[in-house]
Amino acid sequence: MSTEEKSAAPRSLAEALRVRDDVSLAALLRSRPDLITPVPTDLTQLATRAGTRASVVRALERLDRFALQTAEALAVAPDPASYGELLALMGGDEQDPAVAAALPRATALLREQALVWGADDRLRLVRTARELLAPSPQHPSPTGLGPTVREATAGMSPGRIQEILGAVGLPSTHDPVSAVSALGALFADRRRMAALLAGLPEESREVLARLVWGPPYGQVTHDPAPHLRALLDRGLLLPTAPGTVVLPREVALHLRAGRAHRTPEPVPPPVEAAATHRPQVVDATAAGQALAALATVEELLKEWDEGGPAVLRAGGLSVRDLKRTAVALDVPEPVAAFWVELAYGAGLIASDGEADERYAATPAYDEWRELPPAERWAHLAATWLTATRTPGVVGGRDAKDRALSALGPNLDRSAAPEVRHRVLALLAGLPEGAAPVEESVLARLRWERPLRGPQREQHASGAARDEDLRSRIARWTLSEAELLGVTGRGALAAPGRALIGAPDASRPAVEDEPEGPGDKLPVHHHRLPPAAAPPTPADRAAATASAARLLAPLFPEPLDHVLLQADLTAVAPGPLERELADVLGVLADVESKGGATVYRFTPGSVRRALDAGQSAADLHAFLARHSRTPVPQPLTYLIDDVARRHGRLRVGAASAYVRCDDDATLDEILADKRAAALGLRRLAPTVLAAQAEPAALLEGLRAIGFAPAAESAAGDVLIARADSRRTPPRAAPEPVPDGPPAPDDTLLAAAIRAVRAGDLASTAPRKPGPGDEDGAGGAPGGALPRTGAAETLATMQAAVLTGEALWIGYVNAEGAASQRVIAPIRVEGGFVTAYDHTADEVRTYPLHRVTGVAELADDAG
Fold first, then answer.
1. Coiled-coil regions in this chain (predicted)?
2. End-to-end CA distance of the chain
3. Which of 10, 139, 192, 606 has the fewest CB atoms within 10 Å of its CB?
4. pLDDT reported for residue 503
5. Rounded to the nearest 5 degrees, what angle is found at the Cα of 304, between the Cα atoms of 729 and 324?
């Protein structure tokens, strides 16, 4: 490197950021959005923020495995390290070609995210990242390496160091520093180290083999065995504390053939296909699942239509209510929790907010029901894709050992939307119709986002699972996508592809071609493609609409008929029109669901329709109108028989009474032992009084086999039509963000403009003035310029005539001080109007708030 290049090399992260172009800065801020929350005043503040512990930890956690391995190698390399030294640590002596091919991308990624800076001959890992990744007894390095010889011998006596030199055949030195350097040079010399190790006993070499890949620490007694003493005498094991020894880093690297990691992973593991189906079969299967999903959500809301379960005091559903819901939907409890949470996330159910708080449908449910089926499904699928509430954790326990209940608090997992989207994107990368091997998907996700620490949660069993949360969310994603119809037979369907914008999501990253001979980037400083901007609400709405359009042709047309059977059943060979489905749902009970729904007519279901205000004639006409087969005679007899007995008995409030024109029927009731609990007694030949309430009396008589009807105080029959219960308008729960939101292009452009303008103000050189202590100008170091009012006014007026830019100090109305670079345009009435380079706009400032002014140096940019 020439003297000119050395002088131009950045000396700090701030200087490295200062030479970046806007595209590179935008990529940094998009990948690390916490750096512009709030927008930093200049590049120095941006560099400081990029080096804070919280920001660096967040950035490291978002690296892929090979990029993280590269950062870990830099943490154990000399500071600074050359690209060649880094390549030797990553590829080892044999120089794995896959590692050599992938290392430029990893280095470029670390540079882009401001975790590494400097030219290829002086690569520096930011200090906080080095502290996090470097080996220490408290925090072992992921590489398994220990401290260097210099670090391990820091507290060792000079005499002991000289003894080690003599044992390995090195001449004694005059000071400990040169002694340690000589020992380190010996351990780094492959030829001499091979000879030194060859002279050791086999037992000694076995000890080194056990420590070489970590952890590098071991225990020894106060009187070590001879094979351990041979290692201690030669410095191949160095004491770190009483009874504890460590394998020096240089020795471990020799034994590892120069590799920092046992298994570098430069290439992501492929997602393997378990089976391949025709795309038409996948889409048809997914459409069937989507129809079933809509039917399940509607069945859930119908179950809660008159008011759902009570809300627990701590929030959420009780275990008993979740079990009841699972029985009603005929699904396992975890699946019931998924449907309940999906309806809640979509804003279809919420708590009513009453004193006796219960869950109920929201007004949004009625609007949702009126949408076409494909649009209803797209709304549910889009909700699921972006929701942070994670029903898979229901039944587990939180950090305070409290049970996690469906619809309760603490179910948000901020990583869920990203994991769901990434899992579907990996499926989209497979050939159409291919279903993945689940473990290959999990392996790929673990490579893309390896964990630096345990992420475990307590489960209902009380034991912590070894599997990390992201892997569990990925497993849940695969099963939930199948339930919802995003996938069919395990493969991503066409509507699911549209939902995630698959063409963009699966586009591979490629490196830019070199810019030509004039490109000043180092040979290994590969540029990454610009990071994709986050999807806007308009993008998501367009993707949802596209998914609905693709799904609509796959749905069958709603039917206006059923097939009545002689065994008192009706078969719906497909989805029914809403009006038909609603009436049939009251008149009959659902016996089985699937491609065709089977309804069964019973005395209870017919009585339910009669209680809702229908007459026998209405029911006969309805069935004749909507049946493609003749109405079976047994069904006609059933309706007539129930209708003939319906309402002959009348129940009113006495506490309760029963009246009937046929006194023989009342005699039959009194003689029935099953009616004893109702406390009946005869008041008149056609009237019985009861101790039970009217509702209990109705149920009791129906259980015996009668068909009583309730009546009002005026003697009129009460129609028991179900009243739908709705909550007040409720907003759907908002997803919990995983850190600051990713900035859009408009915010990025404004932030970069503000940071560069602030940097100009803070670094612009100025001419020396009378206020300078040494009479020399320079870049302002934070102190505001100070000049008198008359000098300030004169300098401003002169700058208006010459068009020169000035550096000023300014204190606003809140007392906040700042420094700015301005080009005065007009000075009058105690105000200066100027183009403010810091704000990139024309502004007017009161002169009495200007602390002082200084002229910029002639070479100021």
1. none
2. 26
3. 139
4. 60
5. 140
Task: Give the residue, 648 or 96, on which the prediction is more confident.
Answer: 96
Is 397:404 a contact under the CB 8 Å cutoff? yes
On the question of pLDDT at 512 being above 50, the answer is no
User: Do 341 and 411 form a contact (C-beta atoms < 8 A)?
Assistant: yes
699 pLDDT exceeds 90?
no
State residue 777's pLDDT score: 40
CA-to-CA distance for 338 and 2, rounded, in angstroms?
A: 65
Q: How far apart are CA 508 and CA 241, in angstroms?
A: 50
Question: Taking the C-alpha atoms of 292, 296, 301 and 302 in order, what is their torsion angle to the nearest 10 degrees?
Answer: 90
Percentage of the chain beyond pLDDT 70 is 87
pLDDT at position 654, please? 62
Cα 632 from Cα 651, distance rounded (Å): 33
DSSP classification of residue 534: P
Q: Angle formed by the axes of helices 279-303 and 469-484, to 10°?
A: 90
Buried b (16+ CB within 10 A) or exposed e, 372-399: ebbbbbbbbbbbbbbbbbbbbbbbbbee
C-alpha 473/C-alpha 424 separation (Å) is 12
Upper half-sphere CA count for residue 479 (Cβ side, 13 Å): 11
Cα separation, 848 vs 838, whole angstroms: 20
In the block, residue with structure tokens 């590489």:
143
Query: What value does the mean pLDDT take over residues 731-754?
Result: 82
pTM of the model: 0.78
Q: Which helix (H) or strand (E) holds 443?
A: helix 438-448
pLDDT of residue 508: 41
- Please give the sequence-ordered ranges of beta strands (E in DSSP) within 449-587, or none if there are none: 487-488, 491-492, 563-564, 569-572
Strands 806-811 and 709-710, by their bridges, are unpaired
What residues contact 784, with CB distance under 8 A and at least 6 apart?
A: 809, 817, 819, 851, 852
pLDDT of residue 522 exceeding 60? no
Distance between CA 187 and CA 169 in Å, rounded?
12
Return the CA Rg of the chain: 39
Instruction: Say whether 422 sits in a helix, a strand or coil.
Output: helix
pLDDT at 775: 40
Max mean pLDDT range (137-146, 163-172, 425-434, 635-644): 425-434
Q: Rounded to whole angstroms, how far apart are CA atoms 726 and 366?
A: 9
Report pLDDT digits (tens) over 57-71. 999 999 999 999 999
d(CA 835, CA 804): 11
104 neighbors 66 (Cβ within 8 angstroms): no
Sign of CA dihedral 520, 524, 527, 531: negative
The pair phi, psi for residue 326, each rounded to 5°, is -65, -40
C-alpha closest to that of 112 among 188, 50, 37, 182:
50
Tokens of 119: 């030219």
Instruction: Indicate the Cα dihedral angle 57, 58, 60, 61, nearest 10°.
Output: 110
* Tokens representing residue 465 in the block: 């699972």
Beta bridge partners, 361, equal 349, 726
Spatial distance between the Cα atoms of 382 and 372, rounded to a whole number of angstroms:
16
Residues in the chain: 861
Return the H-helix or E-strand segment holding 191.
helix 190-198
Distances (CA, A) of 681 to 678, 693, 710: 9, 14, 19
Instruction: Express each pLDDT in 365-378 by its tens digit.
Output: 989 988 999 999 99
Using the structure block, give the residue that is written with the tokens 């037979």: 489
Q: Which of 88, 125, 95 is nearest to 107 (CA)?
A: 125
Mean pLDDT of all residues in the chain?
84
d(CA 381, CA 65): 31
What CA–CA distance (Å, rounded) separates 608 from 722? 10
Residue 243 is given by DSSP the state T
